[in-house]
């Protein structure tokens, strides 16, 4: 009987020890993300924002704006990215999740003030002209996750998606009553079209850039 009691006590001790075993904990996630985006900015700079692809598109109009008839097509082509302000983490969206198999950081980042120049070819009725449109997209947010897979012993991206693109502030040349009225109407379409461009950047080259970064910087877990 004494032997059985000792065995039971030993087993309970093992179970209790396992139950109270200290699990993994996150370290300074915000500091980690700052390092990630410092490296990301450098990679984007090295890649060259002018090499990020921008789509051509044509908008059709049949309306009056500010007393000016806008009827016909305007094509925007040969778009080139002039600049992007420093890419920063968007800390209002930050979540962490931890279980026995993986640790996940879900976060977001901003690419502020993306400036894009298009060649503009207007075939509007009575308002045919050639010019340029510089579109500055002030807020461009993307969300993503970083996953540390304990089973596979590897770190990588879970997802990387476009979250929010704000309407731009077009600066058009020539600047006159016609192009000002045109810009007011065209800007309503610009953010929808540019969403697809940013989404394509996330697939290539940004996905591979971020993957290599998160695999090279120590994941904040202990």
């Amino acid at each position: 009987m004494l032997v059985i009691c000792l065995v039971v006590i030993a087993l309970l001790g093992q179970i209790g020890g396992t139950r109270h075993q200290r699990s993994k904990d996150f370290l300074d996630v915000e500091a980690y993300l700052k390092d990630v985006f410092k490296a990301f900015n450098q990679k984007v700079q090295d890649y060259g924002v002018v090499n990020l692809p921008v789509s051509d598109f044509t908008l059709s109009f049949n309306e009056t704006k500010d007393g000016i008839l806008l009827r016909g097509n305007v094509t925007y082509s040969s778009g080139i990215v002039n600049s992007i302000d420093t890419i920063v983490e968007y800390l209002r969206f930050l979540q962490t999740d931890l279980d026995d198999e993986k640790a996940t950081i879900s976060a977001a980042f901003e690419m502020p003030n993306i400036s894009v120049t298009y060649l503009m070819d207007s075939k509007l009725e009575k308002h045919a002209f050639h010019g340029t449109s510089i579109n500055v997209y002030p807020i461009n947010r993307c969300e993503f996750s970083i996953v540390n897979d304990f089973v596979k012993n590897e770190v990588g991206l879970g997802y990387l998606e476009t979250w929010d693109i704000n309407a731009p502030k077009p600066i058009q040349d020539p600047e006159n009553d016609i192009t000002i009225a045109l810009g007011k109407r065209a800007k309503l379409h610009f953010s929808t079209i540019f969403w697809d461009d940013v989404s394509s950047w996330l697939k290539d080259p940004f996905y591979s850039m971020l993957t290599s970064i998160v695999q090279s910087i120590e994941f904040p877990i202990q």
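Residues 1-22 have pLDDT under 50 and may be disordered. The radius of gyration is 26 Å.
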